[in-house]
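agent> Task received from the user: take the single chain below, predict its 3D structure, and emit structure tokens. No templates, no multimer pairing.
agent> Plan: (1) validate residues, (2) run structure prediction, (3) serialize to tokens, (4) report one or two observations.
agent> Step 1 OK, no nonstandard residues flagged.
tool_call: predict_structure(input=
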Amino acid sequence: HRARVTAQSLHHRGIAFYGMVNGLSTAQLRSFVYNQTSVAAFVRGAVDDAVEYGLDGYNFDWEYADAQREDALKYAAFLVALEEGLIRAWNTPAWAKHHKGDWASQRPRVSVATGGIGYDGIPGTAGFCGHTDGWWNCSQVDPAGLVGSNVTVLPMNTYDYRDGCWYSAVGAVHATVPIANRGVGLGTCKG
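)
tool_result: status=success, residues=191
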């Protein structure tokens, strides 16, 4: 009930309300994204919660540096499956019940946070988490797996205070992520 009231209050003020999902280890992430039964159950539950509580989508913050490219593609496929589930629910009477006024017409969103990406902003170079060959092993998502979706990649860089770090993370997103999937997240750089 509290989440629904919060969503309604935020919507009344013109603010979207997203569920935040974080806290998996790389082993747990692998176990999850390679299990279609688990992915399908999660998508059903997340869509049901978005409908019931008035969530406008979800943001994922799973940042681990030891993923392999296949893991990153599976993670991207999961994010796209969730977005597709939310889109199917979007045009239903149940969605409209908890998304009043203009919010009923707002397309639900899925976003993924990425960490410190190559401080020099040059694709293919490694920074704190690094990216190589056009994918990020820190966020464990491969932008190639997001093509055709609206899943948004958000560079966050909230734990590094070096000059220019957030700007280079934004530059890396610009250089490696399709324009339809680009976003801008938080930064806590000094300067």
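agent> Step 4: summary for the user.
The first strand starts at residue 18 and ends at 22.
agent> Done.
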